[in-house]
Write a structure and sequence with these properties.
Blueprint lengths: L2 H39 L9 E7 L6 H8 L13 E8 L2 E8 L3 H4 L11 E7 L4 H15 L9 E6 L9 H7 L2 H4 L5 E5 L5 H22 L1
Parallel strand pairs: 1-3, 1-4, 4-5, 5-6
Antiparallel strand pairs: 2-3
């Protein structure tokens, strides 16, 4: 075979090898693109966050509305004290809390129990810097709520609000004054200090409540 024919044969073999490499590269690219497409577009919607229905109670001035509005990223200028009741959907990363906030005035508190039905958890907000008389009233209302048949087995979050005020009582003082240890024995409950100035602590309190709600629902099921 002449040198020319041998050279042509080698060139043809190189061409075949190059063509094969190009085809393999295109195949790999197609597989990669398809895999990315499946990952991005065919994953389906993320699982729905669980929702819990809560009731939020406390005396007028305890700060219930302000705390819930802050958690919902609402403007503080739009906060108006609740006179009857209001409902807010408070979103968290792992759950949505549908909070029914009840007004805390004297003429409304006697109707609180009418709104307890269907609750899966309870939030009680107290003004830790309030007068002795108001603190005594808050104590009586909390005891009444914790002993109510529709609430007595539910997870409780007690927020000692206004910790940023000089007259604020510590969590230990609140626990002792409200006699929480004997009152809440056998219940799932949390007592946490809070203020509008410390949103991280407030969010952490609600995260702990969500954990209690998840555990409570798991036991029920």
């Amino acid at each position: 075979m002449s040198d020319l024919r041998i050279s042509e044969a080698f060139l043809y073999m190189d061409y075949l090898r190059m063509s094969e490499c190009i085809q393999i590269s295109f195949a790999v690219c197609r597989i990669g693109i398809y895999t990315c497409f499946r990952a991005l577009c065919c994953k389906g919607p993320p699982p729905a966050r669980p929702e819990y229905d809560l009731v939020c109670i406390g005396l007028t001035g305890s700060g219930k509305t302000s705390l819930l509005s802050k958690l919902c990223s609402e403007s503080p200028d739009s906060v108006v004290s609740t006179t009857g009741f209001s409902i807010k959907a408070v979103p968290f990363q792992n759950a949505i809390l549908n909070v029914k906030e009840l007004g805390g005035a004297d003429n409304i508190r006697k109707y609180w129990s009418r709104y307890y039905q269907g609750s899966q958890g309870v939030i009680f907000v107290l003004d830790s810097a309030s007068s002795e008389d108001d603190l005594e009233t808050a104590r009586n209302e909390l005891h009444s709520a914790l002993q109510h048949p529709q609430l007595c087995t539910l997870p409780f979050l007690i927020l000692a609000n206004h910790q940023d005020k000089p007259a604020a009582r510590s969590v230990q003082e609140v626990k002792k004054y409200f006699e929480l240890e004997p009152l809440a024995r056998g219940k799932r409950w949390i007592l946490q200090p809070c203020s509008l100035d410390d949103m991280e602590a407030l969010k952490d309190s609600f995260s702990q409540l969500i954990n209690l709600l998840e555990d409570h629902e798991a036991v029920r099921m």
